[in-house]
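Researcher: Let's do a round of design. I'm pasting the structure tokens now; please hold your answer until I've finished.
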């Protein structure tokens, strides 16, 4: 059983309660043109796919939790995949956009995750990382809550994440929204 299999039934309600639904904002930032192949790593219940699937070719939702994936509203354009984001079955240079939304701090081998995103992204493909600002008061409370539920977490500051990805991705955009941040990187070729 994976960590999120314990909480999947209540996950979406919890996100609404904490007002942590950033679907509209992410959709706007991505400015999709209709043809993109998107991979949402740690995509969970498919919340984001609900916002973006009509504006791109396909959204793969890859997650290690069967429970989370059981909530995905799958259809021809929204495809759930059970698996590990560190070791996917996608071919080299096959994806236009990789998303990691509220996932990074759950991953111990963050370098490995970035390496995998780099491998599967097409040249000039985009990586979007949204994560929580660990020093923010609202997030400090959430961190305690998440620690009780999930155990060890691997929070990084936005600067640390940018440092981690900079060999492989040019930073194209950085949005600081106080209690969370969004980093957009473009694959270096
Ligand atoms: C906080 S949830 C975020 C879900 C979704 N991105 C969202 O914003 O609603 C983190 C998700 O990452 C998944 N996850 C954690 N480690 C993973 C891994 N190594 N491979 C795939 N999914 C993973 C969990 O199962 C969980 O669904």
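Researcher: That's everything. Go ahead.
Model: Designed sequence:
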């Amino acid at each position: 059983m994976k960590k999120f299999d314990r909480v999947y039934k209540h996950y979406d309600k919890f996100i609404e309660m904490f007002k942590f639904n950033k679907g509209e904002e992410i959709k706007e930032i991505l400015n999709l043109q209709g043809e993109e192949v998107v991979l949402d790593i740690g995509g969970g219940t498919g919340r984001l796919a609900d916002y973006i699937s009509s504006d791109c070719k396909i959204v793969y939702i890859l997650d290690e939790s069967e429970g989370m994936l059981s909530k995905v509203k799958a259809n021809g354009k929204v495809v759930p995949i059970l698996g590990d984001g560190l070791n996917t079955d996608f071919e080299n240079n096959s994806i236009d956009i990789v998303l990691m939304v509220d996932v990074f701090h759950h991953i111990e081998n963050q370098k490995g995750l970035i390496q995998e995103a780099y491998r599967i992204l097409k040249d000039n493909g985009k990586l979007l990382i949204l994560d929580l600002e660990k020093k923010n008061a609202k997030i400090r409370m959430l961190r305690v809550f998440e620690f009780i539920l999930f155990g060890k977490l691997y929070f990084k500051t936005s600067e640390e994440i940018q440092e981690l990805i900079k060999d492989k991705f040019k930073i194209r955009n950085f949005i600081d929204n106080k209690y969370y941040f969004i980093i957009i990187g473009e694959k270096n070729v």
